Amino acid sequence: xxxxxxxxxxxxxxxxxxxxxxxxxxxxxxxxxxxxxxxxxxxxxxxxxxxxxxxxxxxxxxxxxxxxxxxxxxxxxxxxxxxxxxxxxxxxxxxxxxxxxxxxxxxxxxxxxxxxxxxxxxxxxxxxxxxxxxxxxxxxxxxxxxxxxxxxxxxxxxxxxxxxxxxxxxxxxxxxxxxxxxxxxxxxxxxxxxxxxxxxxxxxxxxxxxxxxxxxxxxxxxxxxxxxxxxxxxxxxxxxxxxxxxxxxxxxxxxxxxxxxxxxxxxxxxxxxxxxxxxxxxxxxxxxxxxxxxxxxxxxxxxxxxxxxxxxxxxxxxxxxxxxxxxxxxxxxxxxxxxxxxxxxxxxxxxxxxxxxxxxxxxxxxxxxxxxxxxxxxxxxxxxxxxxxxxxxxxxxxxxxxxxxxxxxxxxxxxxxxxxxxxxxxxxxxxxxxxxxxxxxx
Length: 442
Ligand code: ADP
Ligand code: MG
Fold this sequence. Notes:
Strand order of the largest sheet: 1-2-3-4-5
Order of helices and strands: HHEEHEEEHEHEHHEHEHEHHHHHHHHHH
Shape: globular
Number of strands: 10
Low-confidence stretches: 80-100
Distance between the termini: 21 Å
Bound molecules: adenosine-5'-diphosphate, magnesium ion
Strand content: 5-15%
């Protein structure tokens, strides 16, 4: 996992040469803040000037190559002096405080008003509301877990908005764990841990951490997070965490962190029931100024039952189709669009693609998966690929066998049985399957 600044660095290294790179770019920590805001932390004022005068254009160009958008660059030094360099690149500007260096990263639409409450998310949303009304007084930390597309990120942002509205002084910070880990790595490389600690300890009263399951493999990220957690907790600051599973089931996370996640309240979000899905569709279409006939709402709510993101995606397709073609929304049209979505889905999820994704996930070559090799490191991924092919495609057992280097259908059957059993008893396998399914866009 590498952040945008790491990618930009790779780019610059090739252009400016090793010596210049080591002198000016390597000591800089970089992080993306909000939308296309790049914060660079230089070691001192002089380096900050060099970055802006000599490397700014190259940095913008490298950013453009990756994001296809122009960044706003802030170069800062981790003392009282902050140097602000804006889009126009019109020289140095001193700013007095750090406020404009931090955005809370909150998405305006993700509020409690826009969150439909039903049985599936009742406890989680009440707890979220309570925490935002009483930061650090009720549950600390609040830990929300649940499957993909069920509203965890939405709730975290809603807490941030609500708390900010009622406690304007509160310093709210939302961060995805992926971004957090990138920032830790960037600051570590540039020896700028002081900045990181300032941001995540001193500048934070309400810490909203999304998708903590990605705090994996990078021991240092975990260590740093652990200390920030302890600091914030003992300073009576509110922490809210989300994850795709119950804390104790998250692999790679240390016991000491897992046990801290249990100090407050752990609550889950399940797939929304039919009525909730209907309300979400009604709310979203009304927001777009469209009143959808109830039979179309019911059709969409029936077809997309497990994931709100998919439900919203389908609705958006229907609305976009009608608006671009300038035709009224009819039941036939909605059915056609749903059919297209399932065709696209099945094209994306072919045996070939599954095999590629699985091979990639386990750092293997596709040929290994298709081979006759029988060591455990290859057999289990091969069995997982067969299991997923059966689960997500319409292919028969013999067809799957043929696609895996001409295996017999009984081999496929045994593989599926083994993985089913294993995933029920082995967290690591269960988690790997979930991760792979996510990579497949499910
Ligand atoms: P997660 O973080 O659990 O993967 P998100 O919070 O990103 O899911 O939600 C996916 C989409 O579904 C978002 O656009 C969000 O606004 C919407 N959504 C999820 N749950 C609800 C809900 N109960 N009411 C309204 N919108 C919801
Ligand atoms: Mg999320």
